[in-house]
Each structure stands twice: as C-alpha cells, then as structure tokens.
Specification:
Elements: H1 12-25, H2 27-35, H3 41-56, H4 61-70, H5 72-78, H6 86-95, H7 98-112, H8 114-118, E1 122-132, E2 152-156, E3 160-172, E4 178-185, H9 190-203, E5 212-215, H10 222-231, E6 235-238, H11 246-252, H12 266-280, H13 288-292, H14 294-304, E7 309-310, H15 315-333
Parallel strand pairs: 1-5, 1-7, 5-6
Antiparallel strand pairs: 1-3, 2-3, 3-4
Helix pairs in contact: 1-3, 1-15, 2-7, 3-4, 3-6, 7-15
C-alpha cells in the first residue's frame, strides 16, 4: 500500500530519517563519494535520498519520486533543490557496481566514528538468510534448478528451505554499528566463513590483538579457534557444542612452532589468548544475552527495511539493496 509522505519534525520516525539526510549532506560523505569516483555528487546524493527513503518506508521508488515531485515540504526536508527524473534516478543507481555502495557505507562510518571504532573491544558475528520473493507454485527447488542462477538453494533453521542468499555481518558490541559484511549465494557453512570475515576485518584495520569476537554455534570449528588465536591474535569465543568436550578441545588447540622460540614473543601472546579463551568458554551461556544484541540489527534490517523478503533476483541488485540498507542503518545509528 502506497502511503502519503508528509514529514513531521515531531515524529520520531521522521526524526530518525533526518539523521540519514544529515549524513548524506555532510562534507565527510561527499568526500567519500568523490574518493569512490562517484562523480556528479549532487545527483548521487539525490538518488540516495530517494532510494533510502523508499527502503525506509518499504515503498516503491516510483511512488517516493512522485511524492517528492509533488510535495514541496518533502523536498525541503530532503534538501533536494533540483529533483532528477525517475529515469535519471534509476540510471544513476545502476551506474556503479555494488561494491562501491558497501565501501561507501562502511568507510563513512569508519571516518565519522574513527575514535570509537579504533577503541572497540568486542565484536559480534552472525549470519542471516536473505530470501528472494519468488513464487514456485509449490514446486520443489532443487540445486540443479539454481545452477544457472545468481541465487542458490539454502536452508535456515528458522525459515526452512529457501532460494536466495546469506548475509554475514560483524557489528560493534556496544553501539551495534556494522563493521563488515559478506554475502554469499545459498547458505554456506558459517564455520567456513569465519576466516574470511576475520580477514575482512583485518583488511579494514578493525582487528586488534586481544579483541574478543563472539559468534554462535554455527561458526564452531576447532580450526577457527586456532585461526583466531594464531593468525589474527584475537580471542575467538565461538559458542561450543556438546561434542567434543572442552578437555578434548584443549588437546586440539596446540601450540604454534613459534611458542618454543624464547626470542619470539608470539608464544607469550598465544598462551595469554589461549588462557583467556578457556577462561570464557565454560561461561559461554552467560554471554548469550551479549551475542543476542546482534539479533536487533537483523530485526531492524528485515522488519523495518524489508530485507527479509526482497524483490531482487540478480546478485548485483540483491547486494546493492543489502549494502544500501546497511548505509541506512549506519545513518540511523550515528
């Protein structure tokens, strides 16, 4: 249902979106647009305001454009002086690849919240399904059916079998600000994504020695404990399963060769991280409430921004929508 868009400064919903507009109009954001080679900055700002407003209220872009064109009050709220045509908005939106929008979202946050992000101590990690709104008329979706498609057949414990993608996101514990995002077709095993996510966080210079990374049982693997400690020098608190027991797990997490070199400090760091890990693992149930905070991020993305079921069917369009929703989330949290 298309609703009229009448901004009200006293309405908390519009006040929240006003923060997104301030972010897009900020000098830092304009610099990120230029740095990512998104030319015609004013056009990109106008396009983002309209597309993000459509996502925010879960409306069609064409309806939002019509409202912006016909309502002077809405144009003033969005700070749009020269509205583009609908064709121009779609052309600007499709001009760049999806990775540009991801870099735009995360680098803007990184720049605006530099001191807070550099001082973060705990990172939360989790995955969720992105389901494509397809109607198969009750027919079974086989893996062979999806071989020539961008999306794949996946399985979620809460949604069952579905066709779509899986998004893995890392957020800062206290503010729930997104730090890194990975999207894959289908539903790959979370345990295999752990190393890739840690590499992405390290590439973005967000990992620090001794940081605590909390993840649920889906990421469980003895190799991930070793990878976290030896390769990234973090405390990988992946919630354990019943088997193997903690005693067996201790035997699997062995010392690196550097541990025996008295001139190298890696052995000391390894021992400190290992001790910290096995100090926390027996108490992992006490940290469930801490990890549960990331569910609020997924709840906002799915229920408020419509990322649960999306009308996008190609890899590029799905990734763009997901990344822009993260940009919208970033603007609301700043």
């Amino acid at each position: 249902m298309n609703i009229p868009l009448n901004p009200d400064s006293k309405d908390p919903i519009w006040t929240l979106f006003g923060k997104v507009i301030k972010l897009i109009d900020s000098r830092s954001f304009q610099q990120e647009l230029a740095r990512n080679k998104l030319q015609s900055i004013e056009r990109y700002q106008t396009m983002l305001k309209i597309v993000l407003l459509a996502s925010y209220f879960n409306l069609e872009v064409s309806h939002v454009y019509s409202e912006v064109k016909n309502r002077e009050k809405l144009r003033k709220f969005l700070n749009i002086n020269n509205p583009l045509t609908l064709k121009q908005i779609r052309e600007v939106y499709s001009r760049k690849n999806e990775q540009k929008y991801l870099e735009l979202a995360l680098k803007t946050l990184n720049k605006l919240e530099f001191k807070k992000i550099r001082g973060l101590k705990t990172i939360l990690l989790d995955s969720t399904a992105i389901i494509i709104d397809l109607k198969f008329n009750g027919k079974y979706i086989s893996k062979q059916t999806c071989l020539d498609k961008d999306y794949k057949r996946g399985f979620s414990t809460s949604k069952g079998h579905y066709a779509g993608f899986q998004m893995t996101i890392a957020v800062e514990h206290e503010t729930l600000r997104p730090l890194a995002i990975l999207i894959y077709p289908g539903s790959p095993n979370d345990a295999k994504i752990f190393d890739k996510m840690m590499y992405e966080l390290k590439r973005r210079r967000l990992l620090r020695k001794g940081q605590l990374v909390i993840a649920d049982k889906g990421f469980y693997s003895a190799c991930n404990y070793l990878t976290g400690i030896n390769k990234y020098k973090i405390v990988p608190l992946v919630f354990p399963r019943k088997k193997p027991t903690l005693e067996v797990l201790k035997d699997k997490i062995i010392n690196p060769l550097d541990y025996f070199n008295y001139k190298n400090k890696s052995g000391t760091i390894y021992q400190e991280l290992r001790n910290r890990l096995f100090e926390l693992l027996p108490k992992w149930e006490n940290l469930r409430r801490t990890r549960w905070k990331i569910e609020k991020v997924f709840e906002f993305l799915k229920e408020n921004l419509g990322l649960g079921h999306i009308h996008a069917y190609t890899k590029r369009s799905v990734y763009k929508k997901a990344y822009l929703n993260v940009l919208l989330l970033t603007g609301c949290l700043i």
